[in-house]
Amino acid sequence: MDATTDKDPLVQEQIYNALCYLGESEPEEILNSCDEYLRQHDKLAYPHRVIILKAMETVVKNNIALLDKSTAKEVIQDWQQAASNVLVAVGQRFINKVMEEVLTKFQPGILPHYFVMQTFANLSVSNGE
């Protein structure tokens, strides 16, 4: 997974495809490996983090019926936290666009998802002056 930091888009695409391919035969193993890698590399640049997150999303979508309930719950929470962190980081430069997207998740009469609220709060903190 270290190759995700390669600047060549073709290499990045190959890593994504390889993770997805491996995820077809061993979805839980790949999801756990990606999760572990992201935890160990918490300073990984966001474009490279996104490659791994997208691969995780694809593996989950393609194998949802095969996943153990506890694995799915753990991975989904970690994935949502990582996605929230990406939005907050992008929001430090493009706050208006990110806020537009986050605000679309607020629907009248419906309690927003926990991670929507957390993202909204973290955007406020990271951009408050």
From TrEMBL:
Name under which the protein is recorded: MROH1 protein
Classification via InterPro entries: Maestro_heat-like_prot, MROH2B-like_N_HEAT
Domain MROH2B-like N-terminal HEAT-repeats: residue ranges: 19-127
Biological classification of the source: Eukaryota, Metazoa, Chordata, Craniata, Vertebrata
A Gene Ontology term for the protein's cellular component: cytoplasm
Native species: Scopus umbretta (Hammerkop)
Domain of life: Eukaryota
Pfam families noted in UniProt: HEAT_MROH2B_1st
